Amino acid sequence: MLTLPTDIDVLARFGRALADPIRCRLLLALREAPAHPADLADRLGISRTRLSNHLACLRDCGLVVAVPVGRRVRYELADAGLGHALDDLRTAVVAVETDRTCVDADEEGCC
């Protein structure tokens, strides 16, 4: 029997994806338009191997999908609503005080 993810599962996946700056940059790039891995690697200035690992994480989190286009694969956001969610998060972040640092959960004083 297939169980549907809970709201907490969905938010945790989204949080995991956003926890890395490269994945954030990838999501923002794909928010603008679907792209092929080679183009994304060039745009972000990272190796294709490193990009592949981050794309795999985003696929596993359910945030991006790979779409076959002939012999190539193009990546895009799994749902158009994700682009809107990213915009909403970017808007919300500007309310954070810039003199504060968000530390890891293992450290005392985590935000």
Automatic annotation (TrEMBL):
Domain HTH arsR-type: residue ranges: 4-100
Pfam families xrefs: HTH_5
UniProt xrefs under InterPro entries: ArsR-like_HTH, HTH_ArsR_DNA-bd_dom, HTH_Metal-responsive_Reg, WH-like_DNA-bd_sf, WH_DNA-bd_sf
PROSITE patterns, sorted: HTH_ARSR_2
GO molecular function, one term: lead ion binding
Any Gene Ontology biological process: response to cadmium ion
UniProt xrefs under NCBIfam families: HTH_metalloreg
Name of the protein: Winged helix-turn-helix transcriptional regulator
